[in-house]
Amino acid sequence: MNLKEINDFSLPELHTLTASQIAIFYKPIMSKEEVSKLLSKSIKTIETWVRDDEIPYRKKKNSTYFLREEIMEWMDNCA
C-alpha cells in the first residue's frame, strides 16, 4: 500500500489498515523490504533503482537503508 492509497482512504476505511502498514509511515529509517511495501514495488525494483541512483538511499558499510522523510519527498516529486 502506498501513500496515495492511504490518502485515498476515507476516515471510516482507515480502521482496515494493519498496524504494520501504518507503522511504515512513521518509521524514520526503512529497509528495502519496507520501502518495497510502501511503494508497492518488488525488492528487485528497489534494488535496481538504488543501483541506478533513481531513489534516495544511504549506505553504511554493506547495508542500504532509506530515510522515510527522503522517500516521502521523492514520492511527492514523482507524482
What does this structure look like?
- It contains 5 helices and 3 strands.
- It has 79 residues and is an alpha+beta fold.
- Strands 1-3-2 form a 3-stranded antiparallel beta sheet.
- α3 crosses α4.
- The protein is globular, with a radius of gyration of 13 Å.
SSE order and pairing:
Blueprint: H1 3-7, H2 19-24, E1 29-30, H3 32-39, H4 43-51, E2 58-60, E3 63-67, H5 68-78
Antiparallel strand pairs: 1-3, 2-3
Helix pairs in contact: 3-4
Oligomer: single chain
Coarse structural class: alpha+beta
- Biggest β-sheet strands, sense, barrel: 3 strands, antiparallel
Unreliable stretches:
8-12
Strand proportion, as a percent range, falls in 5-15%
Proportion of residues in helical segments: 40-55%
Rounded mean pLDDT is 80
Provide key terms for this protein:
single chain, alpha+beta, three-stranded antiparallel beta sheet, 49% helix
Give a brief outline of the structure.
The protein has 79 residues and is of the alpha+beta class. It contains five helices and three strands.
